[in-house]
């Protein structure tokens, strides 16, 4: 292995590429910037496994996600191909490692300006890189960044025996709290200590995911500094440009089901391993071979997801659940009390109405009046008593007088005693058209021989005092992105 040599460009050119690099390495939720109570915990790998990319994407889709473009899965490996401008096929692990060893067996893509890249990247933008320039085809670049701060003077390049684009080689990153090491085909080529990384501040020290894929650093739309660093402008008519990955062996030095940021320092000591006595979802998947999301056995249960939460998150969930339960109980108690009061009020009103009706009926009986024999009449005002009275026709219970007997209107009997008006078909019934079909004494009244008039006509509209119960229902609403 030849000694490292520098491909550093003048600082003025590198400044032009800063914006492009920042756009490629971003975080959806940065615990250092957004706060530890905002971002979710990082699902741990907490095991060791060799992923062989020689079948189909679905084999590992529980643990890996294609974030851009498409990947061609073949019997010899996964092919990441740039066919045209804008292509940047990328795969990313769904799990995190907290310290660990990652071995890549890959063949870089040839082509001017084409960059084949493997990277470890954390939520707060700690980064460990291996990059291959397709226009060079002889060397690999090693680099690191801390908290998203880029410093290209930390880059070191190493020649690969036999070249990087013609055959598969093993490239390894070994990351620990006390040192970071790079290997090529088993040969150690570089060590970085925290003290050498801006006095620890820029040393990668938070849980990382794994990213693999090529991109066109020489794209004509990129900044001049990026194109120069990539080795020149890319001519897409020279393509396609294919990077091939045979397998990736991942070992997580951390343990537990998840990693949690306990504060916003981004220090190694601020990371908490959760449920260290349990297997992570990823560890269970690789141990059982169920790494496809189409297999229901590979998904996390609710209890597993809850157990992977931080202590603060569990306390918050418990507090919210308790508050919600108390709210439901309080409302139920309020509703019961309100309904009980309403029922008591309705019962009291009903009892009062019943008593009033009883007293009124008793008054009629005491006066010898049948209340069902009333005929509507105009009220008469008595100036002596100051009371309004109503002249009514009432039934005579005295059984006096015959059919031709002269009687005052107020004492005219409803039925003549020498007639029978039973319903047709009953004893003594009259079958004529004017028969009164009643014998109860409370029948339609014969107004001076004019015939019976029905005092109970069918209503032509809603009955007065009947509430309207009608109602209607309401209406029934390219590049890396990390």
UniProtKB/TrEMBL annotation:
Signal peptide range equals 1-23
Q: What sort of enzyme, by top EC class, is this?
A: hydrolase
Instruction: List residues of the GH16 domain.
Output: 25-256
The protein's matches in InterPro entries, at most eight in alphabetical order, are given as: Beta-glucanase-like (IPR000757), ConA-like_dom_sf (IPR013320), Glycosyl_Hydrlase_16 (IPR050546)
Alphabetical GO CC annotations of the entry are:
fungal-type cell wall; membrane
* UniProt KW Heme keyword: no
Q: Which organism is it from?
A: Gnomoniopsis smithogilvyi
Q: What is the official name of this protein in its record?
A: chitinase
Subcellular localization is given as: Membrane
Q: Which reaction does it catalyse?
A: Random endo-hydrolysis of N-acetyl-beta-D-glucosaminide (1->4)-beta-linkages in chitin and chitodextrins
| Keywords attached to this entry | Cell wall biogenesis/degradation, Glycoprotein, Glycosidase, Glycosyltransferase, Hydrolase, Membrane, Signal, Transferase, Transmembrane, Transmembrane helix
- Please list every transmembrane segment annotated in the UniProt record, as residue ranges: 315-337
Under PANTHER family, the record lists: GLYCOSIDASE-RELATED, GLYCOSYL HYDROLASE-RELATED
SUPFAM superfamilies of this UniProt entry?
A: Concanavalin A-like lectins/glucanases (SSF49899)
């Amino acid at each position: 292995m030849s000694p490292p040599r520098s491909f550093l460009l003048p600082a003025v050119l590198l400044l032009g590429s800063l914006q492009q690099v920042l756009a490629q390495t971003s975080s959806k939720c940065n615990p250092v910037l957004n706060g530890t109570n905002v971002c979710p915990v990082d699902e741990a790998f907490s095991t060791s496994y060799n992923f062989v990319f020689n079948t189909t994407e679905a084999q590992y889709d529980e643990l890996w996600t294609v974030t851009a473009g498409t990947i061609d899965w073949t019997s010899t490996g996964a092919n990441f191909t740039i066919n045209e401008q804008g292509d940047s096929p990328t795969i990313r692990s769904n799990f995190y490692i907290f310290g660990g060893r990652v071995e890549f067996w890959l063949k870089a893509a040839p082509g001017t300006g084409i960059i084949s890249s493997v990277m470890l990247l954390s939520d707060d933008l700690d980064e460990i890189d291996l990059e291959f320039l397709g226009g060079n085809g002889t060397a690999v670049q090693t680099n690191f960044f801390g908290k998203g701060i880029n410093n290209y003077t930390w880059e070191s390049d190493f020649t690969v025996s036999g070249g990087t684009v013609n055959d598969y080689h093993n490239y390894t990153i070994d990351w620990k709290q006390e040192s970071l090491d790079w290997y090529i085909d088993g040969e150690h080529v570089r060590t970085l200590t925290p003290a050498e990384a801006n006095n620890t501040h820029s040393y990668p020290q938070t849980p990382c995911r794994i990213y693999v894929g090529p991109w066109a650093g020489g794209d004509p739309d990129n900044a001049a500094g990026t194109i120069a660093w990539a080795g020149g402008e890319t001519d897409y008519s020279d393509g396609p440009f294919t990077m091939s990955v045979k397998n990736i062996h991942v070992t997580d030095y951390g343990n537990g089901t998840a990693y949690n940021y306990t504060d916003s320092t981004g220090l190694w000591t601020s990371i908490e391993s959760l449920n260290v006595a349990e297997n992570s979802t990823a560890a269970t998947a690789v141990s059982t071979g169920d790494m496809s999301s189409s297999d229901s056995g590979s998904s996390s249960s609710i209890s597993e997801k809850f157990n992977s939460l931080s202590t603060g998150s569990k306390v918050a969930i418990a507090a919210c659940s308790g508050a919600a339960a108390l709210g439901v109980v309080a409302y139920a108690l309020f509703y019961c009390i309100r309904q009980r009061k309403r029922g008591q009020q309705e019962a009291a009103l009903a009892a009062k109405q019943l008593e009033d009706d009883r007293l009124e009926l008793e008054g009629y009986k005491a006066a010898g009046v049948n209340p069902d024999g009333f005929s509507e009449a105009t009220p008469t005002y008595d100036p002596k008593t100051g009371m309004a009275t109503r002249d009514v026709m009432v039934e005579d219970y005295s059984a006096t007088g015959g059919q031709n007997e002269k009687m005052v209107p107020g004492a005219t009997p409803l039925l003549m005693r020498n007639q029978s008006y039973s319903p047709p078909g009953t004893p003594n019934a009259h079958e004529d058209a004017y028969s009164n079909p009643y014998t109860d004494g409370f029948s339609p009244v014969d107004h001076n021989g004019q015939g019976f008039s029905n005092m109970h006509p069918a209503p032509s509209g809603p009955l007065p005092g009947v509430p309207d119960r009608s109602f209607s229902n309401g209406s029934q609403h390219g590049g890396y992105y990390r």
